[in-house]
Specification:
162 residues, five-stranded antiparallel sheet, DUF3576 domain-containing protein, 31% helix, 5 strands, 15% strand, Alpha-D-Glucose-1,6-Bisphosphate, Chain A, domain 4
């Protein structure tokens, strides 16, 4: 047997051992007495919450709950309506806008809004404003956050759910 042949054999045996150790968490050298009596060792051995490749073919629950405050969401879109919306994701609570100039203003802004809680609360709202020269100053960000929160409260009062 040549040296190359020995290396191929060692590699093949190593690959088989590694492959055999994958999956069920059992090694190749485990005694046969500890194995389940079924013909396939993985059938029926899944724990609850564990997924397999076959889960992609199962029907999914289409009724998902959006964990975003609807008043903050609507108020954010209303207050920043002068900015072109680039993407929105109500499931994660992210609104990304392009650059736009506010009415009566001379500087263009771009905003990213994150609403990460269903509560109508200041901690649920995160606003990041950018100008073309960098981040906007903190006072401007605070003014936009306050305007969004005020409008969200107005929407909630108008909805008679206060």
């Amino acid at each position: 047997m040549g040296r190359l042949s020995v290396l191929k054999t060692v590699f093949a045996v190593s690959a088989l051992v590694a492959l055999g150790a994958c999956g069920s968490g059992r090694g190749l050298l485990q005694p046969a007495t500890d194995r389940p009596e079924t013909s396939s060792p993985n059938i029926g051995s899944r724990t609850e919450g564990e997924s397999t490749i076959w889960d992609i073919f199962r029907p999914r629950n289409t009724e998902t709950n959006v964990a975003v405050n609807k008043y903050l969401w609507s108020a954010s879109l209303e207050v920043l309506n002068f900015l072109p919306v680039q993407s929105v994701d109500p499931f994660t609570g992210v609104i990304v806008t392009g650059y736009g100039t506010p009415p009566g203003g001379g500087r263009a802004y771009r905003a990213t809004i994150l609403i990460d809680d269903p509560a109508l609360d200041a901690r649920s709202l995160n606003v990041a404003l950018l100008t073309q020269s960098g981040p906007a100053n903190a006072a401007t960000v605070r003014a936009v956050e306050d305007a969004i929160l005020s409008r969200a409260r107005q929407l909630r009062i108008a909805d008679n759910k206060l």
